[in-house]
Amino acid sequence: MKGYIEERALSLAAYIIENKATVRAAAKQFGISKSTVHKDVTERLMKINPVLAEDVKKVLEENKAERHIRGGQATKAKYESSTIKAG
Predict the structure, then answer these.
(1) How far, in Å, CA of 10 to CA of 36, rounded?
(2) Which domain holds residue 71?
(3) CB atoms within 10 A of CB 59
(4) What is the pLDDT of residues 59-77, one digit of tens each?
(5) Structurally, how many domains does the chain consist of?
(6) I want to staple 45 with a disulfide (CB 3.0 to 4.6 A). Which of 3, 22, 24, 53 is the partner?
(7) Single pTM value for the model
(8) pLDDT single digits (tens) 1-11
(9) In whole angstroms, what is the distance from residue 74 CA to residue 17 CA?
(10) What is the pLDDT of residues 17-56, one digit of tens each?
């Protein structure tokens, strides 16, 4: 594996763990696709540093479990703001 890919995977892992970031947020921060982030932190990171990969996996599983809550909050905010404009 090329050195810069390993460095990117490690940087992504550190960012996700420190900020409890989603794959989408990490992709935006690093200017890469969500698919690349996911591949880096699941497949590539497991080969580089399995312990760190497990830590990232925990954060991503937590984010996945909370995803429906964030979606509900976004919908609520959308309709609250549209009610204010209409009213």
Answers:
(1) 13
(2) 3-86
(3) 18
(4) 999 988 887 777 787 788 8
(5) 1
(6) 53
(7) 0.78
(8) 688 999 999 99
(9) 23
(10) 999 999 999 999 999 999 999 999 999 999 999 999 999 9
User: Six-digit token pair at 70?
Assistant: 């964030």
3-class secondary structure per residue, the chain: CCHHHHHHHHHHHHHHHHHCCCHHHHHHHHCCCHHHHHHHHHHHHHHHCHHHHHHHHHHHHHHHHHHHHHHHHHHHHHHHHHHHHHC
Single-letter amino acid code for the residue at 57: K
The b-or-e profile of 3-39 (16+ CB within 10 A means b, else e) is: eeebebbbebbebbeeeebbbebbbeeeeeeeebbee
